[in-house]
Design brief:
Number of strands: 5
CATH class of the largest domain: Mainly Beta
Structural class: alpha+beta
Radius of gyration: 16 Å
CATH topology of the largest domain: N-terminal domain of TfIIb
Strand content: 25-35%
CATH architecture of the largest domain: Single Sheet
Number of domains: 2
Helix content: 25-40%
Bound molecules: zinc ion
Low-confidence stretches: none
Order of helices and strands: EEEEEHH
Length: 92
């Protein structure tokens, strides 16, 4: 386990809080990941994933050391494109 990261709520209440991503299931395997200040509710980082993008992320994690650079970049591009599409379709 990595060490918890502390974040200062710069754009909200100014308090310090531990970086903890909250996952919210939106159905159809789509998950919204939100980093939010527990004190004032300011949302800092939101990203979406689906089954395919999570599979690719896992693959990236597992094979990062052995994967050829072209394949690595291709995999990252694919994840970014899937998640950008998701964001667009969820947020409109
Ligand atoms: Zn705050």
């Amino acid at each position: 386990m990595s060490k918890p990261v502390t974040i200062v709520c710069n754009f909200g209440c100014g308090k310090k809080f531990t970086c903890k991503i909250t996952d919210k299931n939106l159905g159809d395997g789509v998950v919204k990941h939100v980093l939010k200040c527990p004190f004032c509710g300011k949302e800092y980082r939101i990203h979406y994933s689906n089954i395919e993008s999570r599979r690719l992320r896992q693959k990236l994690k597992d094979e990062r050391q052995t994967m050829p650079i072209e394949q690595l970049n291709c995999c990252i591009d694919k994840i970014n494109s899937i998640e950008a599409d998701l964001k667009r379709s969820v947020e409109g």
